[in-house]
Structures are given as C-alpha cells and as structure tokens.
Amino acid sequence: NAGVMQNPRHLVRRRGQEARLRCSPMKGHSHVYWYRQLPEEGLKFMVYLQKENIIDESGMPKERFSAEFPKEGPSILRIQQVVRGDSAAYFCASSPTATGAGELFFGEGSRLTVL
Amino acid sequence: DQQVKQNSPSLSVQEGRISILNCDYTNSMFDYFLWYKKYPAEGPTFLISISSIKDKNEDGRFTVFLNKSAKHLSLHIVPSQPGDSAVYFCATFSNSGYALNFGKGTSLLVTP
What we know:
heterodimer; A: seven-stranded mixed β-sheet; four-stranded antiparallel β-sheet; 11 strands; 0% helix; B: mainly beta; six-stranded mixed β-sheet; five-stranded antiparallel β-sheet; 54% strand; globular
C-alpha cells in the first residue's frame, strides 16, 4: 500500500462539526475509491471517483457525505454535521485503471472519532 | 446483505503449522476473488487472488483454493509464521465491476 497517502491519520470531531479526509493516490493512478470500516466490520465500499467525476456513489449515505476528486489536488471525503455513528476508519484506495481483475492499493486510513 | 462471508472471526495456529482461512460467497456469478491482509492501524494489502477459471492459485507459502460448486474459497498458509498474524479479508467485485465486497475478516494469530 506504499504510495497512497491519507491525512489526517486521526481526526477527532464533536457532534455537528465537519470532517474532511484527504487522499492522494499513488503516482500514475487516476482511480480513487473510498471505503469505511466500522468497528468489528469489514470494509464497505462508499464511492468511486476518477478525476473530476464521480463514477459510483452507491455506497455513500444519502445525506451529509460527499466526495470529490478535483483535477488538481487530492480526493476529499467530506462529512458534514458528524454524528457518533460516523466514528470509523476511512480507507482510500487507488488503481491505475478501472478495476475488475486487479487489486486496489490502500492507504493507511483516517480514523475519525466523533465525541 | 453480506455477499462474502467469513464465519470464523478468529483463528489461532502454532508456528510451522498450516493456517486455513475460509470464505463463502452467495452469487455464483462472482468470478474473481482476492485476499487482503491487514495489520492494526494499517491499510489492507493485497495478498493473492484467483479467477473462477482456476481452482487453485499458489504464491510461495500462500495458496488459495476455489470450489465453485460450493461457492467456497479458502486461503492456506504453510508453514505459518508469527509475522502472518493479522486480519485476513476475502473480497470479490460487485456487479458494477469496481466496488470490492469484503468479508468481515478473520483474525489469525500464529503463536511461537
């Protein structure tokens, strides 16, 4: 998973605040995926983006969550008005092409704690 | 709905012995499976994969077996080493083709 950079690694927010998680994919990768891991659970797909486009957001909660991958800069996962249930590890992954027969490269995750 | 199921949350094995981690899936249309390994406070790392055209894939100490009729796959690690202690996730692609569906993971502990 070397190369996929996520920050911050740890983030503490109070209920109602906003959380912004950033992900820089591996060099040469233009496909970014966000996953969430709740305690005692596996990773759940949230959203798949290419540069400037959201390809699939079927795993995103309908409200308060948004993601972007601008032409310049990292991908951002934004959570507005956080609630305690948002406390989780958020993992970003990247790939050089749209996957279907290859692995994703994951970052080390951003751990969000909502007080 | 859990499309990929790992029914054993944990497994303890002695160093040098074989570790067998199991995974069941629900959809016979799934045709590519992956195993990821995860250490605490790190992201998952790809370990090994298998396509449905095969029933076995081997990479060093790691072998994955696929039983399509039973919709079951297993990861064998032999010989197990203490450094193998981690959480292992099996995964497959969703119908969309790019979203990975993960099992809940099996925590492997290899004791000296």
